[in-house]
Design a protein that fits this description.
- The protein has 365 residues and is an all-beta fold.
- Helices cover 1% and strands 63% of the residues.
- It has a single domain (2-364), classed as Neuraminidase, CATH 2.120.10.10.
- It is built from one helix and 30 strands.
- The longest helix has 4 residues, at 21-24.
- The chain is globular.
Length: 365
């Protein structure tokens, strides 16, 4: 069983579209790779929610973090037994944080929710203090601490559990570098992953290999490249450039690692950055002892935010947005899930959205 979360409204700031919780928290269940259709439910009751991240406590309980766009507060929500509830984690933000990927693309900074032994941990950027923060709940109380100070903003973190710790990738807007943090509750190690003169890491995702070491997929905004950084046993980072497919390829990367050590990445390619017209979703895979193989999943009108998961056979399933402007019915959008079958062919399923409503994928489990 897989779950997808999307929002109603464009994932960037273009057009002033906002996300209403009452209409925007969509969880889509894919019963199997051969399912004939997707189903969805609406969650929420108040406020605008952006920068969503979610996790599964169990098959009946979904938890998620997000910024309330009306109040700028960081909030935490839960859906269980058809009941939806939210609570405030941090109300000190002065605005919902954003990240300038390049001169054409600005995105809402993400929150990153991870469960470690059932305890929720949220990594986020605080726009008032200029800090990358970690919040966790203990004894019914939310505790908060500073991981790193980002004087010129950035953040846009991705996080994953690595043992009993958190592994985090994030962006430092001052240096334009991809950064990495590892730790938990008061003890953090920080390092720069890619210090090239390019602007790297404004969009990233992180996973952990079977050997416990992290691997990061990220976007090089100066050279329009998709890159991967693999942590070595020596402690150094191996930076790998994936095949270059041209202008604005590698946006919104998502990464997953197979039980066999294979690395899987999905990413988008824009045709037109002024209109944010989607072009293609790509899938890249690197076997444990091989090079990168790259192929398109879907072409015109598919893209935006992507999210990838692997099933028990290490087959990839990729969720992304379908968005087509100016049809005879208006702007047409949908959530689409592509699954790679054992025969090597992609199987597609689509849950149509409302005309005029562009759905951005936030997370997929």
């Amino acid at each position: 069983m897989f779950w997808v979360i999307r929002k109603k409204g464009y994932h960037g700031l273009s057009g002033g579209l906002k996300l209403l919780l009452i209409t925007a928290f969509f969880f889509f269940r894919l019963p199997s790779a051969q399912a004939s259709n997707l189903t969805g439910i609406n969650l929420g009751s108040d406020g605008d929610g952006v920068g969503i991240s979610f996790a599964l406590k169990d098959q009946a309980t979904l938890v998620f973090s997000y910024f309330n766009a009306n109040t700028a507060a960081l909030e935490y929500g839960q859906y269980q037994n058809s009941t939806f509830s939210t609570e405030i984690v941090d109300s000190s933000l002065i605005s919902v944080p954003t990240t300038n990927v390049d001169s054409n693309i600005t995105v809402t900074s993400s929150t990153a929710l991870v469960l470690i032994q059932g305890v929720p941990h949220i990594v986020y950027f605080n726009s008032r203090s200029g800090e990358l923060r970690h919040a966790w709940k203990a004894g019914g109380v939310w505790n908060k601490e500073t991981i790193d100070v980002l004087s010129q903003g950035g953040g846009n973190p991705a996080a994953v559990a690595c043992g009993a710790s958190l592994c985090i990738s994030y962006f430092d807007n001052a240096s334009k570098n991809l950064r990495f943090a590892k730790g938990i509750q008061g003890s953090w190690s920080l390092e720069t992953v890619d210090s090239s003169p390019s602007s790297v890491g404004a969009m990233s995702d992180i996973a952990v290999k079977p050997d416990g070491l992290p691997v990061i997929a990220y976007y090089d905004a100066s050279n329009y490249l998709l890159k991967a950084a693999v942590k070595l046993q020596s402690g150094k980072w191996s930076i790998e450039q994936l095949p270059n497919l041209g202008y604005h390829y590698g946006l919104y990367p998502s990464i997953a690692v197979g039980t066999d050590g294979s690395i899987h990445i999905s990413a988008s390619h824009y045709k037109n950055t002024s209109t944010k017209s989607d072009s293609t979703v790509y899938y890249a895979v690197k076997e444990s002892n091989g090079g990168w193989l790259l192929s398109p999943i879907s072409d015109s009108y598919a893209g935006g935010s992507t999210s990838i998961v692997l099933d028990s056979s290490n087959n990839p399933h990729v969720a992304y947005r379908y968005l087509r402007y100016n049809t005879i019915y208006g702007d047409e959008s949908a959530v689409e899930v592509a699954s790679l079958t054992s025969s090597g062919l992609w199987q597609f399923e689509r849950l149509s959205g409302e005309y005029g409503s562009a759905g951005a994928i936030y997370d997929y489990k």
